[in-house]
Amino acid sequence: MSAQFQEAPRIRQMLLTDLDAVIAIEREVFLCPWTPGNFCDSINSGYYCYVLEDSVNYISGYGVMTIALDEAHILTLSIAVGSQRKGCGKILLQHFIHVASKHHMRSIFLEVRTSNLDAARLYERLGFRRIGVRKEYYPAMSRREDAVVMELIL
Ligand SMILES: CC(C)(COP(=O)(O)OP(=O)(O)OC[C@H]1O[C@@H](n2cnc3c(N)ncnc32)[C@H](O)[C@@H]1OP(=O)(O)O)[C@@H](O)C(=O)NCCC(=O)NCCS
Questions:
Q1: What is the dihedral of CA 127, 46, 24, 53, to 10 degrees?
Q2: Ligand 1, from 26, 64, 90, 128: best to mutate by most atoms within 8 Å of Cβ?
């Protein structure tokens, strides 16, 4: 087993210097990736931006959440392909739930592509429920794809 999986990865705030690693994952996992400017703006706007990092400083995932009034919104959450299905997504999502709870949020919302069954399963395992659909929300290869809106009541 590699050193990468011997210790639980730690979560820390995303820095501008992480953006090369973050963008590499973003481009690996998403059809329509965020740009470096999107992440830069998120950090500079004070959004809750975190990376998952192992003991040799390898970034295996990241996510961005906003908090407004009593609602949090997870804007993006990704795990590098080589680190998926090892519990990293769950660790990161639990961290966002913890942060939102600490800030006394009433709910956390997110959107997920209807075809993204892996992500939806992870969210449901941690208590998110489907509350609606945004029609043709996401760009896709041929036609646009619907988003399932999910909510976790804290
Ligand atoms: C969706 C995503 C965040 C999930 O992250 P992940 O790290 O793979 O998720 P986890 O490992 O925590 O859980 C996923 C599965 O791995 C399983 N798993 C966890 N630890 C495991 C282990 N040690 N060995 C084998 N399987 C394991 C979990 O039981 C779960 O299986 P299930 O879905 O069949 O119940 C990740 O696949 C991803 O980034 N995808 C691309 C980007 C994306 O879709 N982001 C979400 C946008 S809304």
A1: -70
A2: 90
Q: Is the CB of 90 under 6 A from ligand 1?
A: yes
Dist. CA 83 → ligand 1 center (Å): 9
70 part of a folded domain: yes
- 23-49 confidence digits (pLDDT tens): 999 999 998 899 999 999 999 999 999
Total domains present in the chain: 1
Strands 71-79 and 129-138: unpaired
Tell whether ligand 1 has an atom less than 6 A from the beta carbon of residue 122.
Answer: yes
Question: Is the CB of 89 inside a 6 Å radius of any atom of ligand 1?
Answer: yes
> Does 6 have pLDDT greater than 60?
no
Is 44 inside a domain boundary? yes
Range of the structural domain that residue 57 is part of:
3-109
Which CATH number belongs to the domain containing residue 78 in this structure? 3.40.630.30
What positions carry a catalytic annotation?
Answer: 111, 123
